[in-house]
Specification:
By secondary structure, the chain is mainly alpha-helical. It has 2 domains: 174 residues; 35 residues, no CATH class. Helix content is 55%, strand content 8%. It has 8 helices and 5 strands. The protein has a 3-stranded antiparallel beta sheet with strand order 1-2-5, with no helix packed on it. The longest helix is centred in the middle third of the chain and has 39 residues. The protein is flat and about 70 Å long.
Length: 231
């Protein structure tokens, strides 16, 4: 684990150096992303501790509480930006990585367990590029040499898998019309309650329509009105 900002920046410099081999750049990039993600995790723990302490001192600690909240918001934004940029770079570099690295050498860089490489190869074969398959398959292959055995699976994805998820989430948030409505009929979330927020900050819950079955065997759908969320 990188323990200082100086070493973190050095890893980032190596990752961005086009003169180095792609394997070295990927290793450095993974080290940097793992550190950024780890710092965010520690930041959340510290934030919770500080908030609990400051809330006990209200109203005298109101300003300090706001300062801690703002610091956490800025760290969250910085982490989001770093992870999204990493995921976007991986997506754009996937074809080049395929051309420059064999499957086994890529697995070595991503720390894919030798015992799971046959399964990983099969999963990767369903994608256009090898690295896409390795990172998108539930996050179980990256770092599997460290956290996965034949007896159990831990669904804690590696740094690149997390970054790709961030990039996809960012894309969907900024391009809501690029994918079908998941709550529409035949969508994966059809029938599930959905929440949305109006401009004044009020949160509503839209519950699915109620199907009424008539005595003659026919049915009709009754749409429900949105409810104000009390949670």
């Amino acid at each position: 684990m990188i323990r200082s900002p100086k070493r973190l920046h050095k890893a980032i410099d190596i990752a961005c150096d086009d003169s180095r081999s792609i394997a070295v750049r990927l290793i450095a990039y993974r080290m940097a992303v793992r550190c950024i993600w780890g710092i965010r995790g520690l930041g959340r723990v510290t934030y919770a501790q500080q908030m609990a302490k400051l809330k006990r001192g209200l109203p005298f600690t109101a300003e300090a509480l706001k300062a801690v909240q703002e610091q956490d918001r800025q760290q969250a934004q910085a982490t989001w930006k770093a992870m999204v940029e990493t995921g976007a770079w991986l997506a754009s570099a996937a074809a080049g990585i395929d051309a420059l690295m064999t499957f086994d050498s890529l697995c070595d860089v991503l720390s894919v367990n030798h015992a799971h490489r046959a399964e990983a190869r099969e999963a990767a074969g369903k994608f256009r590029n090898k690295i896409d398959g390795l990172l998108w398959s539930g996050g179980v292959f990256e770092d599997s040499a460290h956290h996965r055995s034949g007896r159990r699976i831990r669904w804690d994805a590696g740094p690149f898998s997390v970054a790709m998820s961030f990039a996809m989430n960012d894309f969907m948030l900024n391009n809501p019309d690029a994918i079908p409505d998941p709550f529409a009929p035949d969508g994966p979330f059809y029938g599930a309650p959905r929440q949305y927020q109006t401009e004044d900050g009020t949160t509503f819950i839209q519950r699915p329509g109620l199907t009424v079955h008539r005595a003659d065997g026919s049915t009709r759908m009754i749409e429900r009105k949105p409810e104000v969320s009390r949670g």
